[in-house]
Amino acid sequence: MVHCFHLAGFPKGLISCVTGKGSEIGDFLTMHPGIGCITFTGGDTGIAISKKAGMIPLQMELGGKDACIILDDADLDLAAANVVKGGFSYSGQRCTAVKVVLVMESVADTIVEKVNAKVAKMTVGPPEENCEITPVVTESSANFIEGLVMDAKQKGAKLCQEYKREGNLIWPLLVDHVRPDMRLAWEEPFGPVLPVIRINSVEEGIHHCNASNFGLQGCIFTKDINKAIMISDAMETGTVQINSAPARGPDHFPFQGLRDSGIGSQGITNSILMMTKVKSTVINLPTPSFTMG
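Given the sequence above, the corresponding structure tokens read:
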């Protein structure tokens, strides 16, 4: 990888690639006095790094529980398409994936029906066959996802599809009638499992979104732009998409999260500023001038 940077014209020695287990080299790197700043993308590991980094500047993009709020005046076909796109692309293994659907009760049945119809057509299998749903990254990840599903099922949630798993491969699953007392309502599965929580008011949806320990992104589906802006202002997340699924966006676009979702803001300009140390030099003239305080 470093060789690619050299071919692009970067001076040798400017970029180093150190590989190894985080448990063996992580603390050494993050606590070394020669480190000027740390940028990290991940999850709980980022929180651990932040506790050890001391006064080193940090830029972190961590986990998310991105909420999709669907109002009763939304374009339901558009909303359903984006729920599937946002919740199941990359098998749900994206920080910006839709992680919970908060839908008004009056249109919940329709949304669930439309999403189920699309999920039924998704291809499942190995990535070599260009399947839409492929195995999650590790067996422990699959076990964690299964634990969330079983907890929700035991507490009364409705599995819209049969739960099916082969090793690390988990079939796409929509879980309806999820309640706040279920782990799936709050924890990030990072896989092809999507909970649906039925709400009776906009305030209920905003409250659930803001009660999360995450605050990366969120999205709103409504035809009322004024209502969308009002909800966006109230949602405590780094970015809110209106009538589209959450997404990283272009590289120059600010990308940030609140609470356990991160520290600082990514994006070309913000990253350069984060990695720049500001220094002031004041020249005091021997004779008074109008610039002197």
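Residues 139-154 form the longest helix (16 residues). Try to locate this feature in the token string yourself.
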